[in-house]
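HUMAN: Please help interpret these tokens:
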Amino acid sequence: MTMIDEREIEAAPMCFACGQDNPVGLKILFEVNDGGVTAEFTPNENHVGFANTVHGGIIYSALDDVMANVLYLQKRKAHTARSEIRYRQALETGRTVRLKGWIESERGRLVVLKGEMRLADNGNLVADAEARFMLA
């Protein structure tokens, strides 16, 4: 596992997904949980693609960030190299979702992560993703 000095990890208060200072951001708060990272998020009317349905880019942004935070919260600097998402069902605004991200495998500087978004009320899968991150 590659660890770097904590001072080398930049603060990200303006991150679109998790930045708490970004006035138009999602403001998702991630926490380390069971070897991965989890969070809850409730999309609103600002996140619409069409007809009360959350834009796919918002869903992808949340999933990319839950995977990235698996490394970031371990103080491991990395960036998304490749990512694939599968949308399983439409998401209506106002529906709270649970996000989960974890490391699937690691080899050298390449880390394969997975993430999923499920409806908080019934656990139904909204979307899942797999990404390859390159460690700095």
